[in-house]
């Protein structure tokens, strides 16, 4: 029993220290609400899930004081937004730095063929992201508009751009590529025929300008539903990272119709 009480004492001491640490941070935030972004930048590791649970618990304790509850809830929301903004900025900077290293490695290749092979290799390892492709695209765009750059350099950057863009396109889930093709078809009869083709198994071909892909009604329906649900919930989860350009009212309306057609004719 003594051993158990000692363990309980140690556990309670740890909890007390955690609560004290959360309270100290909460006091800092309450003392400077407008400086929350700076506080987050300096003390990001302290804004843990446990801290937000603690903040919520403290807010709930003011059950008879709506004004105090709202004040703490507002502080919590501001902190969450600041943490998300900080994490997004950090992730973007890390991606930018990683893309810069890859870009320099590609540019320093001994030949155009070697550079293209590096891009293909990155794509195979799923390390070719939109940040790197954007960097290559900007380099090509700047070269194209420059009168001071040799044509040979422009040709090299153009080939790198085409290789990177082609590989990035092939990394997009085929269901998303099929959906984007289908919603461009205005005629309902033609769209229904295209759906039948998409659900007919056969040899898949992937090219620069033409794709011949197929999937199942269930998989296509799942992707359509995911995009539509994400739009209505105003979220952009990792599952639809490749489909963010589809999150607008006009496209969503077309997807709703396409979902109904799939459900009615193929499920």
UniProtKB/TrEMBL annotation:
InterPro entries reported for this sequence: At4g37920-like
Protein name (database record): Uncharacterized protein
Organism taxonomic ancestry: Eukaryota, Viridiplantae, Streptophyta, Embryophyta, Tracheophyta
